[in-house]
């Protein structure tokens, strides 16, 4: 038997490839399925089942393309109602893969169809659980996403999650390995550990949600501190449940190299959003007016989802040459399939034509020290937990996630400084503000980390972030 965790850092997502004998199973596959097909060929095995722990909200699964290419059926937990053909398993139903078995445990709470897959090895021993978004390491799945579909409150869903965990999972043996669908950085939980694999016994000791005295305390603890989910989540659920274009079709459409004049014409005709995926260090020096910067070298896909929201919105790409395919792939993972093409030759080609360009004023932390005064207006776009842990005295907390709400209250009459932790998120914010016509600001390179190193800007006393949740 072989179990391989295929972890995608930018999504904090774990897919699983399992082989026994001449058969295989894949759990929660990513959108692009060729890597799985390559593994199957290399191992000389047949894909027997594609297991989905639930209808994912934070990424588009590759279940449909993978099923079409291999003929393997898709398996969901009880109550799932996809618009395509699938096996809707019964609670405790067993599926054979080679010499091992997968037992379906219906664990509603995160969503109503959520299932945990219990692996029973060749010797009949319960060995591992693939817990989806029911149980994370250090946390449990948020119970506020399926309220509308289930006609339940988040408190009622949290109660179901408690029952699932305490009656289906906690009674299992301590030596069982836990393979969750997500890790630290995912918006599907609030307190996840950085590790991606653990034993159930250790989770019983360390996971706050598994150490509550009763259901009422569990519900209160799990709901406490939950921030609003990204708005694109519902659209991803709809795609996972209702279907989508094949990955190859999305790639073919997006990989159109456009000369600057053609790029400009399409932007004007379609109202496409110009997404510049270069680094903040390059973007600030020059970019196409009204372009939004979300750097490819970072948590690119989740931030695209959070900032652009509408997965159907047409997009034109400006990239570092040679990274176009990667950008389209990562966009497709969160359902942004409407890429109309990319700028051939990148920003340099645009600039060479003499077309209009724009820039963001960016200064070093040392320059900020020289310009700083106690009266300076400073906007900190980090998460509330980061801000609560430590921030520049008198700085305003304006999380990037909420920029659509707070940007309207910014005035061009008063200059302000803008920073995040390291410069990635603040440049996203800078480009969005710039697109809205707000230009009287200066972004700080290196963010709070760089500012802190100068030791010359007054900050609040540090508080461990785990205590601010």
UniProtKB/TrEMBL annotation:
Pfam families in the record: Lactamase_B, Rhodanese
Top-rank taxon, per record: Bacteria
**What is the scientific name of the source organism?**
Bergeyella zoohelcum ATCC 43767
UniProt-listed PANTHER family: PERSULFIDE DIOXYGENASE ETHE1 (PTHR43084), PERSULFIDE DIOXYGENASE ETHE1, MITOCHONDRIAL (PTHR43084:SF1)
Does this entry carry the keyword Metal-binding? yes
What UniProt keywords apply to this chain's record, in alphabetical order? Metal-binding
What name appears for this protein in its UniProt entry? Rhodanese domain-containing protein
> Which parts of the sequence belong to the Rhodanese domain?
268-359, 372-456
Has the keyword Metal-binding been applied to this entry?
yes
Q: Which GO terms describe its molecular function?
A: metal ion binding; sulfur dioxygenase activity
One Gene Ontology biological process: glutathione metabolic process
Gene3D superfamilies, per this entry?
A: Rhodanese-like domain, Ribonuclease Z/Hydroxyacylglutathione hydrolase-like
Q: Which InterPro entries match?
A: Metallo-B-lactamas (IPR001279), Mito_Persulfide_Diox (IPR051682), POD-like_MBL-fold (IPR044528), Rhodanese-like_dom (IPR001763), Rhodanese-like_dom_sf (IPR036873), RibonucZ/Hydroxyglut_hydro (IPR036866)
